[in-house]
Design brief:
The chain is an alpha+beta fold. It is built from seven helices and eight strands. A hairpin with a 5-residue loop joins strand 3 and strand 4. The longest helix is centred in the middle third of the chain and has 15 residues. The protein is globular and about 50 Å long.
Length: 207
């Protein structure tokens, strides 16, 4: 995924995700940022979170699981991000939702602080991103990822090389300069970025 803890050399591959499972309704955080019973909050990112997003992604960039992004790019994309914040107020995870077309968006740059892996934070972030997609009336979510088991447990299916958009939409998307869109289209120039990743898709129920 060109951005979702995506894999890389240039791809995003969802790295370090938490254990999936239903959140206790009595402890669940709402989309406005209420803390759950563990003191974890998921909220929209603000500009002061950008250095933390880069910090959270860096271990996965070094392992070539995520594509590295300059601060200028992250600041420009900050409105796409959601942040998980620990009990001490420090960001412990991030994820982004990038709209591609009228019924399609991508989960990108899903990354966690290693100390918080397998503690349900990845689940919380993905659930929140899916909620944001539904509020935008997005019907399908795409990801390019190494974390196949995690996404399968959340209802994503491996679609391989299957064409996901009709030719007329492909013709529009191919004009994009976004590397993630190029990876979604499986263009030859970004194939080194996507090696080892799986292309996965989920149909979202309407609100």
């Amino acid at each position: 995924m060109s951005d979702a803890a995506d894999a890389t050399t240039g791809a995003d591959a969802t790295g370090g995700l938490g254990r999936p499972g239903r959140v206790d309704p009595q402890g669940a955080a709402d989309r406005h940022g209420a803390a759950d019973r563990h003191g974890i909050t998921v909220r929209d990112a603000v500009v002061s979170d950008v250095p933390h997003i880069q910090r959270l992604c860096e271990p996965f960039v070094q392992k070539r699981i995520l594509l590295g992004k300059d601060l200028v790019t992250l600041y420009g994309d900050v409105q796409e991000f959601q942040i998980a914040v620990g009990p001490d107020g420090v960001p412990i995870g991030c994820g982004a939702l990038h709209v591609m077309w009228d019924d399609l968006a991508e989960v990108r740059t899903l990354a966690l602080d290693p100390a918080w892996i397998r503690k349900g934070v990845g689940h919380r972030l993905l659930e929140s991103l899916e909620g944001a997609a539904r509020r935008l009336e997005i019907g399908r979510l795409f990801c390019l990822t190494f974390e196949v088991d995690f996404f399968e447990k959340h209802g994503y299916l491996n679609v391989g090389d299957e064409g996901l958009v009709p030719p007329d939409v492909y013709g529009e998307l191919v004009r994009s300069t976004d590397e993630g869109v190029a990876e979604f289209l499986d263009l030859a120039r970004v194939k080194p970025n996507t090696l080892g990743n799986s292309r996965m898709l989920k149909a979202l129920p309407a609100l």
